[in-house]
Amino acid sequence: MAPESTFTGPWSKNLEEFKKSVASMPDKFKSAFDEISRATATTICNLDYLHVWETDSDLDNLLQLTQVIGKIRNVTKAADGSWNVPKNGGMVIIAEDRAKEGRDNYTRLCELVKHLTGGEGKKHLDGTACAFGTIVVVKGFNTASTEKEADSAVRRITKTIERVFEMAKYSDKSRKLVWHHSAFLPSLLTFINTTTPTMRSSFAAITITDALSTTTGIKPTPAGKANSLVDLQRLEEYCTRLAIPAVFVDAASQLISYDYLATYMYFHAYYLHTFLPPSLSRPHLHAAQDQLLTWAFRLRGASESKYGADAVKLVQQHLKPQTARAWARMCVDAASFERQKCKAAASDAQIHHAVQLADSPFAPFTHGVPAFARLAIGPAGLCHTTPTPSSSSSSSSPPVSSPYTLAPLSISFSNTSIRPSSSTPFRLLLPAPGQDVAKVTSRIQGTMMAVLERVRQEKGMPRITDEQRGMWSEVGAAVNWAVGEQGLRGKSLPEGVLGKVGFVTEKVGRGTWGFVLGLGGAGGGGAGVGVGVGGYGGMQGGGMGGMGGGPGMGVPPMPGGMPPAMGMGRGTGMP
Question: Which superkingdom (predicted)?
Fold first, then answer.
């Protein structure tokens, strides 16, 4: 049967139905499906194009950008021991405006690039852009901005991209950009609509991160709820006019199923200090300590019926002001200790979270790791040689070994359904058939190990300070007083809670961070316990059993030694 270049499948209400529809596609349409998928993958991962990343500065975003910056710079060591850093290869990072949430993304992103490149950066455009060679950070849109402010944002971003094209000496053929956008569409649509015609015509592809959920139904994600149906329709219209694809990427559809970075990164609490400078890691350590203490004293307060200001007094009695003044917020706020909040601290979900905080106390600003959905795209992405569900069918080309499919799909905004279609600019990045959560998790672990090795070549081993050691020692003492076995025994607690809470106190001293600081010994199970996909002792899977053992993915030595994980490449999914 002769192949056909166009196809349209049946409507599906969720991702599983859509996958079944693609798998049952008639053979005559499969080559067209394959070609669309391959062409899209080639474009969104094209190293010759300029990649523009609109981004937050949360931990997962910083680590994902580190992957890209490492690829762009491609640092190699010369025979004389010096470092060769390529002069070309540009990158534009657009900082989301999160001023209302109390963080300066622009400054944080500049600090990341400064750390990774070793350069001070040169400010341009009245301080709204900072260039580190051909990698430039620029202030983005304020979601509540006026029309005048939006016009200013469009002009500065346009000028930034034009200058990077010039500085990095992009050829006429490569003077194309791939725009990787976050969930909020109006800013992207404003840029496309009001930038210069030349800039508009340089678009080669767009990716949209964490805007659309397809796993349990076709609906916006929490981050995408600010988008209207009109926004999605305008995106489709613009992409159709420009003849470019728009690829939706999200963690859930890629089987990135775990919420904690420690699952995907070996010795996360230790090596984070290689990836990031102290100015970037410190706020996350402070936030984690604040959250952990709040949880511990909520539980202690509930066990003694002490709430509000009475619970805060307990915290203050066991935490020195000079230690906590810089970061204690929730744990010294009476509103944090309302009766219902304190009672909820005994739930499995909150104990689970406390175990993670105790083991690797670096709390992200938001929930989950949505930016890790971007590890598959861009110049460092893994989807540039993409198989499709039809790879097993008869074809003139041999199947390509790659873990992703870029499925062309049409979206019905009226009945919230999706279907395979060759006539739409929309794509959905999916794991290829045969992929599962374990394989995806292992691949990300390997990817991050490779990124770590590249950064470690220049930055060396992490440096842990006495200040961190002393601060965690005091936090641990307060947590142990609040929820240790002696403190809670005989108190009013739901059945079984005391045993579960014991995993928190164990991790405070014997988890990854406690071990790195030299505060707790090797941990119950010794080195290498819990290397499996489930993370620390099976906690990540949601169960409460099997939480014992050593600190997660193996025990790192004290600073200065080489952790056993380095060199484990093949065993951890290293490409």
Answer: Eukaryota
